[in-house]
Amino acid sequence: MSDAELAAHLAICAGRILLEVRDSDVFEGKSLGKAGDKVANQFLIQALREQRPEDGLLSEESKDTDHRLEKSRVWIVDPVDGTREYGEARSDWAVHIGLAIDGVAEVGAVSLPGRDGGLVLRSDQTTPAPAYTGPPRLVVSRTRPAEESVAVAQKLGGELVPMGSAGAKAMAVVCGEAEIYLHSGGQFEWDSCAPVAVARSHGLHCSRIDGSPLIYNQSNTYLPDLLICRPEWAKQVLQLVAELKR
């Protein structure tokens, strides 16, 4: 099984586990989020250790160690991206399975199990987004939209589209449901590794909001900002962000 096939398989399986936990009606709200995180993480950690024992591993739900820093290949996972949305039985949550090679998000799968029929976007299977000629749509946090996103949307005459998890927002751009995902409110490597791998494979622009590259498997896993967008919007968005910071 290739790395991309493994990532997709694990994302699908973890998504099914999470739906089963949610549908059991044993947990609700925050307790549902905690239970889902725990069960999905246990499955993913065990599976990756069995299938790729020589690789490094970083998960939001497991204690981090320096061991991964010695590795060229590191799996970076988020068992439930958007725990709040998962606990509220919304659809805008995701499972992230990413593989960084020498610091670059190379392979990934993002599962959106809450959508009708489920949806998995992967780095080894790409489809063109549908054509769109209207004003740009910018996906933003449904609870705390970043100031830069709001300001850039105003400058571009764009539309804000509130949404839950980082994975759901990034995949909205991949699927052609939005053009720009600009985030500056703070994230960690597991929030963006898999989405960036998928977005890059689909030909999207992916960078920090100052235009510098996104680098993974760092000792400090905090990766506070990113831009994922259709390539035709990248230069203008980066310029507007730079102007806002002057």
Automatic annotation (TrEMBL):
InterPro entries named among the record's database cross-references: CysQ/Inositol_MonoPase, Inositol_monophosphatase-like
Known Gene3D superfamilies for this protein? 3.40.190.80, Fructose-1,6-Bisphosphatase, subunit A, domain 1 (3.30.540.10)
Asked whether the keyword Magnesium is assigned, the reply is: yes
Alphabetically ordered keywords of this record: Magnesium, Metal-binding
Q: Does the keyword Membrane apply?
A: no
Q: Name one GO biological process term.
A: 3'-phosphoadenosine 5'-phosphosulfate metabolic process
| Signal peptide stretch | none
Identify the residues that bind Mg(2+): 60, 78, 81, 191
Its needed co-factors are: Mg(2+)
Q: Which GO terms describe its molecular function?
A: 3'(2'),5'-bisphosphate nucleotidase activity; metal ion binding
Matching entries from PANTHER family are given as: 3'(2'),5'-BISPHOSPHATE NUCLEOTIDASE 1
User: How is this protein named in the record?
Assistant: 3'(2'),5'-bisphosphate nucleotidase CysQ
